[in-house]
Inverse folding.
């Protein structure tokens, strides 16, 4: 029994040494010019992105024009697949009352996001979420959001990320305001 502890220690060191190569590869920084999605695929287990490595682009047509989006992980369009994305909104950017088919989790990175529940946008009933603020919006719960100052948020959940507007006239896909 006296020799069991040193033997287990040696086995543990061997396992750590054998796993060091894959771990180092999985946590290697993203090469400049590589898309965020490509970085996610290249690092199947770990994704490490600094703010300057995010690949911002226009938000999808379901959101009003002016927002920018960066997919951090996963595929927001696929059902049952976890996703994480960052969204950047200019001051005053408003998403009218809408709902999603899956739970939506939102964290505020910078700025202030006003969030309210219900089928109408009533700022007096909303809550201001500043840096570090969090909201969990259950599936099919109507809600709205408005940026106060440039605001960056982190949105994550289980796909698909889809948006249905309470009032179809607010849908930029139907009004061409994307």
């Amino acid at each position: 029994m006296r020799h069991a502890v040193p033997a287990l220690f040696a086995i543990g060191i061997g396992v750590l040494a054998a796993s060091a190569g894959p771990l180092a590869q999985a946590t290697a920084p993203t090469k400049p010019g590589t898309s965020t999605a490509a970085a996610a695929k290249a690092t199947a287990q770990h994704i490490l992105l600094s703010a300057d490595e995010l690949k911002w682009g226009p938000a999808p047509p379901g959101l009003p024009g002016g927002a920018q989006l960066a997919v951090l992980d996963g595929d927001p369009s696929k059902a049952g697949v976890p996703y994480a994305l960052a969204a950047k909104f200019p001051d005053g950017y408003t998403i009218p009352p809408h709902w999603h088919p899956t739970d939506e989790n939102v964290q505020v990175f910078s700025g202030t996001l006003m969030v309210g529940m219900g089928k109408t946008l009533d700022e007096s009933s909303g809550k201001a979420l500043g840096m570090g603020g969090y909201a969990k919006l259950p599936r099919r719960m109507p809600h709205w959001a408005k940026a106060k100052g440039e605001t960056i948020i982190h949105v994550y959940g289980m796909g698909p990320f889809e948006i249905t507007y309470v009032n179809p006239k607010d849908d930029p896909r139907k009004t061409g305001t994307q």
